[in-house]
Amino acid sequence: MADKRDYYEVLGVQKGCSEDELKKAYRRMAKKYHPDLNPGDKPAEEKFKEVNEAYEVLSDPQKRQRYDQFGFAGVDPSYGGGEAGASGFGGFGDMGDIGSIFEDFFGGGFGGGGRRRGSPNAPRRGSDIHVQISISFMEACKGVNKKISVTRTDSCKECGGTGAEHGTAMKTCPTCGGSGTVRVQQRTPFGVIATQRTCDACGGTGRVIEKTCPKCGGRGTTSSTSTIEVVVPAGIDDGQTLSLRGKGNAGANGGPAGDLLVTVSVAPHPTFRREGYDIRCEIPVSFYQAVTGDELTVPTIDGTVAYTMPEGTQPGTVFRLRGKGVQRLNSRSRGDQYVTVVVEVPRGLTREQKAKLREFEDSLTDRQNPRKKSFADKLKDMFNK
């Protein structure tokens, strides 16, 4: 017994730890070294036995007290001081812990019932297919039809999706007798544990194919590539997804097909910028045009329109063109277009041009430059104070 490690050291806890700390440590160590997770690993199996031996003693308040007082002699009958030894694994203090551990490992508690699962023979919906297409800004505004190539699985027409050769029938699985599950017994340090698992021979269906379909190889589905036309509606925005019902992969056991999900990527435009269903753009005008006003030619997604810009238009002025935005999805109404006026300041003027501008500047009155006059007055008031 001299080669035994201290039980607290085995579980990685301090002497005097709480029951909750002890329980958490046991769960962690038992999962780490469980034989099912370490098949064929003898050292891990020995560690697992050691962990269970330690917990069997420390989880029992009376045994823990004797162990704390007398050491191994207080709990091992070979020393004449204890009740049931560790080798029997017969007296676990909290069977609920063991049951939850086995539920983690085997999918169920003692008795091998496992969690309830759906019937593998029930109709199942096919999986969706995800694709992405790229369209231009104008195509998103106006709508467009796009042809895309899609590879999808279809129910095999030769066997009707059964996977069995035409004219033959499926038979009851001889391994599980048609139940879809098999009972497995495992010898563990806890004793012999019986669990139920899905039958590997039939995949849980309870039936096996005697002669496989030569066209699909028993899968019940075939793969094919086809061209599908996608109708992209006017008003679609970047990142939105269209759903084509029933255009995805085939379902199983008579279940419906999945959907084809088409995500739209919209390329940016050099002139227009979209905000929801509204469109924004900038239009450059000269200093002269801003001062005197002018008839502007403004681009829209429908072509150009005329707009009368009033005299004295300030830089950054935004005017609205009603109904010149993007058509709303599933509606006839449209957003608006907002146009920002950008006044260009001329560069590289000659000496004569600058002289004429100075003459023009000097001829202006305060009434003609109200903002400049107001700002100058504010500066005087601020510094005089």
Relative strand content: 25-35%
Number of E strands: 15
Strand order of the largest sheet: 10-11-15-14
Low-confidence regions: 79-100, 102-116
- Using only C-alpha atoms, the radius of gyration works out to 40 Å
Oligomer: single chain
* Biggest beta-sheet profile: 4 strands, mixed
Shape: flat
- Fraction of residues in H or I helices: 25-40%
What distance lies between the first and last C-alpha atoms, to the nearest angstrom?
96 Å
- Helical element count? 9
* SS-derived structural category: alpha+beta
- Please trace the helix and strand order, writing H or E for each element: HHHHHEHEEEEEEEEEEHEEEEHH
Q: Provide the residue-averaged pLDDT.
A: 82
